[in-house]
Write a structure and sequence with these properties.
single chain; mainly alpha; three-stranded mixed β-sheet; three-stranded antiparallel β-sheet; globular
Length: about 375
């Protein structure tokens, strides 16, 4: 669940916005979206134009030892995903782009102010997504201000990796290499997982699917590496993430109850702020238990519904996919076929099936 760490990544589909995205926007009559598609085209082209084959980069004496070490980790992580999780053998990162910034892009998430309900923007082919990305921070901030003026809760976060779902040959970008080797492994397996199964218009499905594969693949990578220190660190990371998620889930439950109550708007707004203050206090009471990842940044500057929407994108159906893999006897090809069938199902049927899988996994844990 790499969203929960400082490095943040997302299935932020900017690649499609190149010429194909612009053309589809025109065909669909989305004239007002052309500037957005164009900024994406320029940003994606910048990345592609700076990319070089990784094998060439590894032989370049001007490249730093740290970069080379991290790029070797990328290749090793992909090899494990291919051999142990049946990732396609042509899915890997084969090029590297060194950028002049610590983030590749910025994503805006928004929510209704009195419901944990994502603000959606719809695109050709991809469907309606609960986030919107920009290659320039000031453009993300301008869009967030626009939504703020309309009364939405908003949240901007930096992105250090994304997937174009096979529209382009995604390069490894230098922001991906800034964190630990463990974080890099998680990112690689997560982002490449997006290319296996994608449900248009269902962000929670797509990110939960990739988050599940992320942890499954990282555990397999560490088993092959046989490094007890890194295994312990992953276990501590996951425990910290689950503790953080539990804090937010307790607050979410209170907010859902509040928003459904027969109260006036002003009364709900006041009670909403109190619940978020209680969430901050909940964190303060528990922060001593966090071992390797301290989510203090999430509680600074004020939280709102958009933060909860963003978290839910990565966590809602992780347990459902764990249950689905069990149903498939641990066989990844069967699992991918089953996940693809879910991706192609009508949204209400897909959600019902995933909710049932979530319940079965929770019940199994309780037992």
């Amino acid at each position: 669940m790499a969203l929960l760490k400082k490095k943040n990544h997302t299935n932020f589909i900017l690649g499609m916005i190149l010429g194909v995205g612009t053309a589809l926007g025109l065909v669909a009559g989305q004239w007002e979206e052309i500037p957005y598609y164009w900024q994406g085209a320029k940003g994606q082209w910048e990345i592609l134009s700076h990319s070089r084959p990784i094998l060439e980069v590894l032989e370049d004496p001007a490249v730093t030892p740290k970069e080379k070490e991290r790029l070797k980790v990328v290749l090793q992580a992909q090899a494990v995903a291919i051999s142990e999780m049946d990732y396609p053998d042509d899915i890997g990162y084969t090029t590297y782009a060194k950028l002049d910034r610590p983030q590749v892009s910025w994503v805006v998430v928004a929510s209704h102010p009195l419901a944990i309900k994502a603000y959606l923007r719809c695109y050709p082919v991809l469907g309606c997504l609960s986030y919107r990305g920009y290659f320039k921070r000031e453009e993300a901030e301008a869009f967030a201000r626009e939504l703020d003026s309309k009364g939405y809760d908003t949240f901007i976060r930096p992105v250090q990796a994304y997937s174009t779902l096979g529209w382009f040959e995604d390069p490894v970008v230098s922001p991906m290499l800034e964190g630990s080797a463990l974080d890099l492994v998680r990112t690689v397996i997560h982002e490449q997982g997006h290319r296996i199964v994608f449900a248009p218009g269902d962000t929670n499905f797509n990110e939960s699917f990739a988050s599940f594969l992320e942890l499954e693949g990282t555990r397999r990578y560490l088993n092959r590496l046989n490094d007890p220190r890194m295994k312990n660190r992953l276990a501590a990371q996951v425990a910290d993430e689950q503790r953080f998620q539990a804090i937010l889930e307790r607050g979410r439950a209170k907010l859902i109850s509040l928003y459904a109550a027969d109260l006036g708007v002003d009364e709900k707004r006041s009670a909403k702020q109190q619940i978020f203050r209680e969430m901050v206090q909940d964190y303060q009471n528990q922060k001593k238990y966090f071992k390797v990842w301290v989510p203090a940044g999430w509680f600074k500057g004020g939280m709102n519904n958009a933060h909860l929407v963003a978290l839910g994108q990565y966590t809602t159906y992780v347990q459902a996919f764990a249950a689905l893999l069990k149903e498939c006897g641990g066989d990844f090809p069967r699992f991918y076929i089953a996940a693809q069938k879910l991706a192609q199902a009508p949204p209400d049927q897909r959600a019902a099936r995933l909710d049932l899988l979530n319940t079965s996994q929770t019940t199994a844990h309780d037992g």
